[in-house]
Write a structure and sequence with these properties.
Alpha-Beta Plaits, 5 helices, 33% helix
């Protein structure tokens, strides 16, 4: 858990209305977590990086997939980030699973 304190968390909002291909992001060294959520008017991507320098590779991949970055915000790690790192998905994803399918 102490390593997560050193990790860097970003939320990137894209003007795209389609999900990005996850596979290329899985290949980026130093990218600990990549989650995306599509709403009616934007695509929100949350990433956890080992260090800020990894952000360049993430942005390059977004651009390669024709992503249109609208906002980019950096923030401190939260308990939700610890949960994602330990379990592999966000708490809201767990809460939205129908009973008996978890």
């Amino acid at each position: 858990m102490l390593s997560l304190i050193k990790d860097v968390v970003y939320r990137i909002t894209l003007g795209n209305l389609t999900l990005l291909d996850n596979e290329p992001f899985d290949q980026i060294q130093g990218l600990r977590s990549f989650h995306q959520k599509l709403s009616h008017d934007e695509l929100a991507v949350e990433i956890i990086l080992e260090k800020d320098a990894v952000l360049t590779n993430v942005i390059n991949e977004i651009a390669r997939q024709s992503g249109l970055i609208v906002t980019l915000n950096k923030r401190e790690s939260t308990l939700e980030d610890v949960f994602v790192k330990l379990v592999g998905y966000r708490m809201e994803e767990v809460e939205n699973v129908p009973a008996g399918q978890s």
